[in-house]
Every structure is written in structure tokens, then in C-alpha cells.
Amino acid sequence: MSATDVASTFLTPIKLTIMVSVFASVPVILYQVWAFYRTSTV
Predict the structure, then answer these.
(1) Going by C-beta distance under 8 Å and a sequence separation of 6 or more, which residues neighbour residue 1?
(2) What are phi and psi of 41, to 5 degrees?
């Protein structure tokens, strides 16, 4: 990580945390959508 701007030293870890948390929560979100779809079509 190279800091090219004053704000980048603060924003880079925040962006990384957001990206990792979204990536980690995608399977849970997909499962919830699938469970809703499965029960509504039965």
C-alpha cells in the first residue's frame, strides 16, 4: 500500500474492510434469497 494522498492512508483500510465484509457476506445473502424463493414457490 502506497499512500499517494493524505486521505488514502485512512480510506484504504476502510475500503479493504468493506470489500472483505461484502465478499464474506455474499454466501449468506444468496442463501437467504434462495430460502425465500424456495418457500414462496412451493
Answers:
(1) 12
(2) -100, 0
DSSP letters spanning 5-42: STTHHHHHHHHHHHHHHHHHHHHHHHHHHHHHHHHH--
Q: Tell me, what's the pLDDT at 40?
A: 86
Pick 5 or 36 by higher pLDDT: 36
In the block, cell 485512512 appears at 10
Cα-trace Rg, the chain? 17
pLDDT digits (tens, 9 = 90+) for 15-30: 999 999 999 999 999 9
What phi, psi does 37 have (nearest 5°)? Answer: -65, -40
